[in-house]
Amino acid sequence: MVDLKGQYLKIKKDVDLAIQEVIDTTAFINGKAVQDFASELAAYNGSRFCIPCANGTDALQIVMMALGLKPGDEVISASFTYFATVEAAALLGLETVFIDVDRDTFTLNIEALKKAITPKTKLIVPVHLYGQAANMEEILRIAAAHNIPVLEDNAQGIGGTFTFSNGTRKKTGSMALAGTTSFFPSKNLGCYGDGGAIFTDNEELAVSCRMVASHGQKIRYQHDLIGINSRLDTIQAAVLRVKLQHLDDYCHARRHVADYYDRAFQSNTKITTPYRAAYAHHVFHQYTIILDESVPRESLIEHLKNKGIPTMLYYPIPCHKQKAFENRGRVSGSLTNTDYLTPRVLSLPIHTEMGTDQLEYICNTIMEFVK
Fold first, then answer.
1. Is the peptide bond before 8 cis (omega within 30 degrees of 0)?
2. Helix (H) or strand (E) segment spanning residue 15
3. Cα–Cα distance list, 352 to 8, 10, 158, 236, 296 (Å)
4. Nearest Cα to 189, choosing from 211, 172, 169?
5. Is 40 exposed, middle or buried (0-12, 13-18, 19+ CB in 10 A)?
6. Residues 228 and 310 in one domain
7. pLDDT tens for residues 141-165?
8. pLDDT value of residue 79
9. Disulfide check for 353: which of 3, 187, 198, 363 has CB 3.0–4.6 Å away?
10. Average pLDDT, the chain
11. What are the residues whose beta carbons fall under 8 Å from the beta carbon of 166, sequence distance 6 or more?
């Protein structure tokens, strides 16, 4: 699904040098590379502040803690997403309100969002799933009307952009009160371990997030609130500084792969290729097709596996049906699109090192099964 070795070999010299510099200084925690990376990533993303942390899940939890959310407060998000999005809320005793997604974009359904808001709603968490931006203009408009903060889950969308109706363009993760991302190795901007970050233009929130991520301290050994220990280590920051210089190229390469898939499948009525919203610059963290109900998905997966082609199901069980949420959270309205997509989606290999031979082989193998 991802060729991290091939990607590394292209930047090996720079990555090895960056890692060696950290080893030479032995500043493995909070070294200079961490602060440099935070500044560079904030500038890239068009955000005033960037707070690195240990992973994308922590990033979500840190923001929720910094906002002072209390048990019982409602957080609206999609059920069709990775579990971490709603897990962070559950860890804090917040009430997750699951709503539907659009069938085409896989992101928060606007009408479902409007109907889900109650006096207890304290946060809305749209997910830029698979690299496609959610409809942030409408989400922000609705949130502002109800004075509800918005937190963008940008773990899969870093490098993407959203164009507002007035022509203004912003990076995903920079539009709401706060945004978070993940540097899991397979991400468009991935490190060689775990890592995450928080974006915000709000200085007060930035200060609070830094405190929460560092045991609740602003001054060492003075703990003003209960926090957690969540740091991006210096070696990972050094790697990310190198890879950040290539992020736009990585996103372009993924779009090139997506273009190839689109052309290959355009005449097949049993395969729906990813929708590209006019307002979004899709960065294709995943390339996810929707299969017609007549196509036996498990048989196709087995067919591809036998031909040496990996696939993934993102995600086989929606969050509201996970055992962990049997007695918590609630569903708002119908999840018709979620129920439609779950048994039909299939993600194909997509990464920065894919060549035409690989793509042709994958597409031909799929087309010989899906006729």
1. no
2. helix 12-25
3. 11, 11, 15, 20, 29
4. 172
5. middle
6. no
7. 999 999 999 999 999 999 999 999 9
8. 98
9. 3
10. 97
11. none
Cβ 96 vs Cβ 331: under 8 Å? no
Q: Which amino acid is at 122?
A: K
Which two structure tokens, joined as six digits, stand for 1?
A: 């699904």
Distance CA 223, CA 126 (A): 32
The first and second tokens of residue 101, run together, are 């997604």
Helix (H, G, I), strand (E, B) or coil at 34: helix
Domain count for the chain? 2
Quote the DSSP letter at residue 324: G
Final residue belonging to a domain, choices 200, 219, 244: 244
Confidence of residue 214 (pLDDT cuts 50, 70, 90): very high
Least Cα distance to 180 among 49, 4, 29 occurs for: 49
Report CA-CA distances (Å) from 354 to 239, 289, 357, 360: 22, 18, 8, 10
Domain boundary among 200, 218, 244: 244
Question: Three-state SS for 81?
Answer: coil
Provide the domain limits for residue 73.
4-99+107-244
Q: Which two tokens mark 69?
A: 């959310």
Residue type, 223: H
Q: Where are the beta strands (DSSP E) in 44-93?
A: 49-53, 74-78
Q: Are residues 213 and 84 in the same domain?
A: yes
- Count of C-beta atoms within a 10 Å radius of residue 322: 15
